[in-house]
Amino acid sequence: MHAFDILGDPVRRRILELLADGEQAAGAVSEVVRAEFGISPPAVSQHLRVLRESGFVTVRPDGTRRLYAVEAAPLREVDIWLDRFRQFWSQRLDALATELARGKRERRAQRDNGGDTDGDPRRGTASVSEEDT
Q1: Rounded CA gap, 133 and 124, in Å?
Q2: What angle do CA 49, 51, 55 make, to 5 degrees?
Q3: Is residue 66 classed as helix, strand or coil in its secondary structure?
Q4: Compositionally biased, Basic and acidic residues: which spans (predicted)?
């Protein structure tokens, strides 16, 4: 199975999200997934099996429990494949970062000036000029 076939299923993606926080028992994963998706315990087990057989998770016995953990290698392969597409969103993310920084600077300047951003000490808020509208 191709990595995107594995990741295309919302139940398997959710299982990986749960395991991203660290190793978890199959029962704990099953409880969350069953509650969120309304599927049976055997269905959850099947999804765990698909993830295990495709190499996305590892399992180890711990007494009577089976502990599952994310395996990084298949996710790195997905990341490498996605790398050629990052150009499509990285420029937009850079622009967003610039706007967020600008907003922080403006709020800081407003706070430091006591809310006076237009130079008029009688006002506590910035005025809107014709250029701003």
Answers
A1: 20
A2: 115
A3: strand
A4: 109-123
